[in-house]
Design a protein that fits this description.
Elements: E1 5-11, E2 27-28, E3 31-44, E4 57-71, H1 85-89, E5 97-99, E6 103-105, E7 118-124, E8 127-141, E9 149-157, E10 164-166
Antiparallel strand pairs: 1-2, 1-7, 3-4, 4-9, 5-6, 7-8, 8-9, 8-10
Length: 181
């Protein structure tokens, strides 16, 4: 079987609650997608014991990480937010301000305002992993003679209910991701 990668991401109404992204409405057109399905911290007990040998360490803070790039392109229609605007909301930006038929703009969130979060389902071939409460960081890459890209990294919680399954994502709709001009 070929190795294909699909990412679905949707803004959560409530932090850490599965927003159930779909392949039709929430597919992300990525480049250089990478995932760490499980990251943990280890706590060493370092007890004084009357025997030699290694000591047990406890695993804590289970989380998941995904990283990818998206092309920086508009929505194709004045006054309509680009597909990547929702991703930036989970990186500390406010929701885009839409001026009908004119523009869509986005700025940094103010301190003490609750930050948005995402639910992300990522597929590598027929293996699906879920991540909830994802928040991230971003950087932009403008290089002369190349397409502009934004690099995003998200860290999220592994849900207790069905964090992994063997299912295919279905046909992804990527029409909201426009080709850069």
């Amino acid at each position: 079987m070929d190795n294909f990668k699909v990412l679905l991401a949707k803004k959560e109404a409530t932090y850490g609650t599965d927003a159930t992204p779909t392949a039709v409405a929430n597919a992300i057109l990525t480049r250089n997608f990478s995932a760490k399905p499980v990251e943990t911290d280890q706590i060493k007990r370092e007890l004084d014991l009357p025997v030699f040998g290694a000591q047990q360490a406890l695993r804590t803070n289970e989380r998941q990480r995904v990283g990818f790039e998206v092309e920086l392109a508009g929505s194709g229609a004045a006054g309509t937010a680009a597909a990547w605007h929702e991703l930036l909301e989970a990186c500390g930006m406010v929701a885009p301000t839409i001026t009908a038929g004119v523009k869509a703009s986005q700025g940094f969130s103010t301190p003490y305002v609750a930050q948005s979060s995402l639910t992300a389902y990522h597929y590598i071939s027929d293996q699906m992993r879920k991540m909830v409460g994802a928040r991230g960081t971003f950087g932009v890459n403008f290089v002369a003679g190349a397409l502009p890209f934004m690099k995003l990294d998200f860290l999220g919680l592994i849900p207790a209910a069905t964090p992994f399954s063997k299912t295919a994502p279905g046909a992804s709709t990527l029409t909201r991701w426009k080709q850069p001009v």
